[in-house]
Amino acid sequence: MGRLRAGDINGARRLGAMHCMRQKTIAIKPIAESADAPRAVAKPESNKTVFGNGRDVVQPAIFVPDGLELDAPNRCNGLLLLKELRSDSFPLCFFDPQYRGILDHQRYGNEGERQRARSEMRQMSEAEIRQFLQGIDRVLMPTGHLLFWTDKFHLCTGIGPWLTGTNLDIVDLIVWNKLRIGMGYRSRRISEYLVVMQKAPRRAKGVWALHDIPDVWDEKVTGNTPHAKPIGLQGRLIEATTNTRDIVLDPAAGSYSVLKACQRLNRGFLGCDIAG
Ligand SMILES: C[S@@+](CC[C@H](N)C(=O)[O-])C[C@H]1O[C@@H](n2cnc3c(N)ncnc32)[C@H](O)[C@@H]1O
Predict the structure, then answer these.
(1) pLDDT tens, 135-152?
(2) Dist. CA 9 → ligand 1 center (Å)
(3) Whole-model pTM?
(4) To test the ligand 1 pocket, which listed residue (98, 176, 178) has its Cβ within 8 A of the most ligand atoms?
(5) What are the start-end ranges of the E strands in the chain?
(6) With the CA atoms of 134, 135, 138 and 141 taken in that order, what torsion angle do they form, in degrees rounded to the nearest 10?
(7) Mean pLDDT, range 197-223, rounded to an integer
């Protein structure tokens, strides 16, 4: 059996090559208890309110590409992982792109070790981010959510065009107060933004189970991993948008903060990072 390999997969040429190899090298195996798990989404019980306290949707069987492990770090190109997954099969995906926009447009001076480590990480072009969004759109279940990390620069310059041609709609925004002061020409950055997107049909009732998550969230992340995201916030959002034992996807997982949140919450995890 072949393994999914990590690679410096830049652009369509390399991806095209991997695609040709796919039939031969990648076997898939069912991992959910029932391959007949329902794929359709139930309708809301009543139209009287848009809120509901539970979830009426169930994740269908999913397939894990050969060479990747559930509930563990995997070294792999996230675009390749997305290509191998069944359509309409995940209730939740996190996506935290390695933006190059801010680095291209703004240059700071004395940045320190953490910022230097950040600028050395492999960055994603706009075209690559769009490819991720299209892949995520395909694999999300109807009503499934995408939690998309962004920064002030991209929030202000607009992520809307990246969604062209997808079924994803922006439905909410959460501000993460990092409790750690950063750089900035005018105000100093202390926050990041989590854009909540939903694949059509767009609704909260029967899909979003918690109603006590504030839209400004204070959480300090310790350690030196650049870009590690808050496990507490991600955990609450996982509880809001998935059922116990659902499998959450993160195709560019970095420090695997989403895996850590899933492990605390009795959720499965499927994810990878090109750097391991
Ligand atoms: C912003 S970081 C993710 C941080 C993560 N959310 C966390 O909490 O640690 C983005 C990650 O994307 C990875 N990456 C870049 N291109 C990728 C690709 N094509 N496939 C998978 N991962 C990729 C980088 O190696 C980096 O670790």
Answers:
(1) 999 999 999 999 999 876
(2) 13
(3) 0.71
(4) 98
(5) 28-30, 63-65, 90-95, 140-150, 168-177, 191-199, 216-218, 247-250, 268-271
(6) -110
(7) 95
**Orientation angle between helical segments 257-264 and 231-241, nearest 10 degrees:** 60
C-alpha span between 81 and 271 (Å, rounded): 8
Nearest CA to ligand 1 atom 17: 274
CB 248 within 8 Å of CB 258: yes
Q: Which atom of ligand 1 is nearest to the CA of 234?
A: 8
Q: Give me the pLDDT at residue 273, please.
A: 96
Which residue's CA is the nearest one to ligand 1's atom 8?
A: 228
Contact at 8 Å (CB) between 66 and 28?
A: yes
List the single range of 9-23, 153-167, 250-264 with lowest mean pLDDT: 9-23
One-character DSSP codes across 29-69:
EE-SS-TT---SPPPPS-SS-S--SS--------EEETT--
Residue 146 and residue 194 in contact, taking contact as beta carbons nearer than 8 Å: no
Tens-place pLDDT, residues 169-197: 889 999 999 999 988 888 898 999 999 99
What's the token pair of residue 176?
């993460």
The CA distance from 193 to 210, in Å, is 19
Q: What average pLDDT does the structure give for the chain?
A: 81
